[in-house]
User: Fold this.
Amino acid sequence: MQIQQLNEGNCLTYLIRGEGMKEVILVDPVIDEADGYINMIKNEGMILTFIIDTHSHADHISAAGRLIDATGCRYIMHRDAAPACVTDRVEDGAELTLNGIIFRFLHTPGHTKDSLSVWAGHCLFTGDFLFLEDGGAGRDDLPGGDPGTHWESFQKLKELPEDLLVLPAHEYHGRKPSSLKNQYALNPFLQYRDKGAFIRMLEELKLGPADWMKDVLEANYSCTRDPHAAYIPKDMPACEVGGTREPEPGTQGVAEITPAGLYEWMEMKKEILLLDVREPAELTAPPGRIEGVVNIPLGVLGMRTGEISKYRDKPAVIICRSGGRASVAAKLLEREGFSRLYVMKGGMLNWKNGTGT
Assistant:
């Protein structure tokens, strides 16, 4: 099976074909790139047989309508999907052989009611259900979104091989695709072992309004062929949790401290909490750990704040591998009344030689 990512921007479209075959499948095609897809298919002698949209998109217009008109291909989505031009609707657990390749479809709602994850070969196409590493996952405050359902969908991942390569529908910060096992280690949304804590985390973020996204959904429901059918801001991580949120007046983000700055504090014997929110197994593997840390994994932090309550008014430095989980943990602790919080910039990947330099 050959896979090619076709787009240059934040929205990712995957072309899939079997070895030596002309027939191809597109996953999550974008209308702004439709002419390019059509020209490529024609010039390279390909035959587009199927489109798969992992869900009803809210941040871009699907190219499905345009591609169906141009090629006569079939269009696959979940049975609950609203777009009118879908030709093939699949259930949770459906298995189809398309162009000689076995595709397994998992219903993974939460971001939307119709969210699908698609397992083909060694790859898992997750749409907005799961992003890479500290990108977390797609927001749950759109029509049909639900944090509790999203958490329940995450539990389905436990049934899948950990070596599957995760290929999401968006990447806003240049992260590279990696295994499902890697996501378990680095994605903060997969750290929550308690459904209630996950729901509270998302609800307390107070995500900003994004009414334009509802217009995009309506355009996709109608299978519009017009790339200008809805206003779409450029270069915004719109489907990430908090991606359209504006800063609240008078608020500041959690402060950062460099590894070198933290080392200076440690040399001065300052009374500080070093809180590492990675999983215990990560502390014994590269890039290692800082001596003296308290280890409380992010997924259980909300239930164990009492263990560190004496530091509510003292400096607390939150540490993880690259900074993503630490930022989530810091916001959680801020809501619990901790007032002097710092995230170690760049996480353990920036901590070198035991001195932060």
Observations:
- The radius of gyration is 22 Å.
